[in-house]
Write a structure and sequence with these properties.
Length: 512
């Protein structure tokens, strides 16, 4: 262990002047990445206040939030190109400016289309700013470029700030107004801009790589497809699914965008997402696991909030305090994954079984323990298990993408698929399916049994939790009997090798 710490002691960031102590330099970038991650434009925890204040639908707020995730996912394919085209200083300043504008627009605008478009752009820049910070301190976090270690840091930041920003948003709205969260974030971003202007020098990359050969049209079409997919999942019930022209029209546009992109990928030299990335075994496996796992966890988005608010009678502050339980699960899950998966090199199969077992524990608690009169403290166990399970799955399967055997020029394309499957499909498709299922079961209980809506809701919840628990246990059995000897060995290539690969990529595109 002492040997591993020797390179970290020599770590330096040339972008920051020498009068700043070396040990302090990485922490400056950690502060930057936390500010960026807290910056969302639209804050889903304030959805109730925004709906009442702006006369919007709850679906409008959700769509804006998911549009941000789509923008973040699309950025993966070009984030290395941007890094080797612009200095870290320029990337951080541009990110701060865009996020400040996004927070101002989202605080003032009442147009669903504007909110979604602004959040989409903000998500793209938020991912680039996060990558600019994380890539700068990567060798400080893991001198041997072990991505299973690096992703533990990434997810404690990303998943942790999601929970903490929700807490901050609700308390800002409780003590003042929901817009105050936007103004606080604008102030933090302005502080970051001043700090970057003073502390970060405009250091150019050793090899200037122009932005040539990027399939920007493909990026746009993939964005259209992802947004159409999300729109159907979010607004499906509101528009009564396929009976509505809106859903059919959006589905047609999304299918057209997908077909055109797949057609273009057959002849383009460098499509935005190639078939090599789409067909990779680890990528396909990750998509399937994400779909199953996040469908099991979809109850979080469908009726967990309604149960706590309507059945248990929690107000907004008590509801958001539950985020602390999830945050505790995330923190313990990251530490556990760092020790077992990253350092002890436990198998992918073992970690996946553990995550699904934790998910089964979450579902089992709500199936057997939910009802009337449950104390807030009793919810610690299931929410802790949910947070721990989700972060383990995310770290393990993102690491598997690095270890997929893809050439590094194709690897960022796989990250786009992974981001869309995990963050967008996982968050939108599962709740859409489980939500429709819940509504049918709820109406059946009310009509057939003739009981009070609150009792019907608890019975419907228990029924769905029971079936999802059976599905989770079945998944555990399938994984337990399968053969999976692979252990993590996901080593990130050296930055100079990445620069050379990207330079060879753009050389044929340069004018002669």
């Amino acid at each position: 262990m002492a040997e591993r710490l020797v390179p970290k002691g020599c770590f330096d960031i040339p972008d920051i002047p020498a009068f700043i102590p070396r040990k302090l330099k990485p922490w400056i970038f950690i502060v930057f990445v936390l500010i960026i991650q807290f910056s969302g434009g639209v804050y889903l925890a304030a959805a109730t206040d925004m709906v009442g204040d702006k006369a919007l639908l709850n679906e409008d707020i959700l769509m804006a939030g998911y549009a941000s995730l789509v923008g973040m996912s699309l950025n993966f394919a070009v984030m290395f190109r941007i890094k080797f085209r612009f200095s870290t200083r320029i990337q951080l300043l541009a990110t701060a400016i865009v996020l400040i504008l996004a927070n101002i627009v989202c605080a003032l605008s009442d147009s669903p289309a504007v909110l979604a478009a602004v959040c989409f752009v903000a998500g793209w820049f938020r991912m680039q700013g996060t990558f600019a910070c994380n890539s700068t301190i990567q060798l400080w976090l893991t001198p041997y470029r072990d991505m299973s270690v690096f992703f533990c840091f990434v997810y404690i930041v990303v998943d942790g700030t999601i929970q903490l920003s929700g807490i901050a948003t609700v308390y800002a709205a409780f003590f003042a107004q929901w817009q105050y969260m936007n103004w606080i974030i604008c102030g933090l971003l302005a502080f970051m801009m001043i700090a970057v202007a003073i502390l970060v020098r405009p250091v150019r990359c050793p090899m200037y790589i122009p932005l040539l050969g990027i399939d920007w049209l493909g990026s746009l079409l993939w964005g259209v497809f992802m947004l159409c997919f999300t729109f159907i999942c979010v607004y499906g019930n509101y528009f009564d699914w396929w009976y509505a022209r809106e859903i059919r029209g959006v589905a047609f546009v999304g299918v057209c965008a997908l077909v055109v992109n797949l057609w273009r990928a057959t002849f383009l030299r460098h499509p935005y997402i190639s078939f090599m990335a789409m067909k990779n075994r680890n990528v396909v496996r990750a998509i399937l696991v994400y779909l199953v796992f996040f469908t099991l966890m979809a109850t979080e988005h469908v009726f967990e909030h309604s149960y706590a608010a309507q059945i248990l009678g929690f107000d907004d502050t008590n509801l958001i305090d539950l985020n602390w339980y999830v945050f505790a699960g995330i923190a313990v899950g990251v530490v556990f994954t760092l020790y077992t998966f990253a350092n002890r090199k436990w198998r992918y199969k073992t970690m996946t079984v553990i995550a699904f077992t934790l998910a089964a524990g979450y579902l089992a608690w709500f199936y057997f323990g939910s009802g009337f009169g449950v104390e807030k403290e009793a919810l610690f166990v299931p929410l802790f298990l949910r947070g721990m399970a989700s972060v383990i799955i995310s770290i393990v399967f993102l690491t598997s993408i690095v270890q997929s055997g893809l050439h590094f020029l194709v690897f960022p394309q796989a990250l786009v698929i992974n981001g869309f499957a995990g963050a967008v499909m996982g968050a939108a498709l599962g709740p859409a399916v489980v939500g429709e299922w819940f509504r049918h079961v709820l109406m059946r209980n009310i009509v057939a049994a003739g009981i009070m809506p609150s009792h019907a809701m608890v019975l419907a919840m228990k029924e769905i939790y029971g079936w999802l628990l059976i599905a989770a246990l079945f998944s555990i059995v399938v994984m337990a009997v399968s053969y999976g000897p692979v252990r993590p060995f996901a080593i990130f290539p050296k930055w100079r090798n990445i620069r050379r690969s990207l330079w060879r990529l753009v050389t044929p595109e340069l004018p002669h």
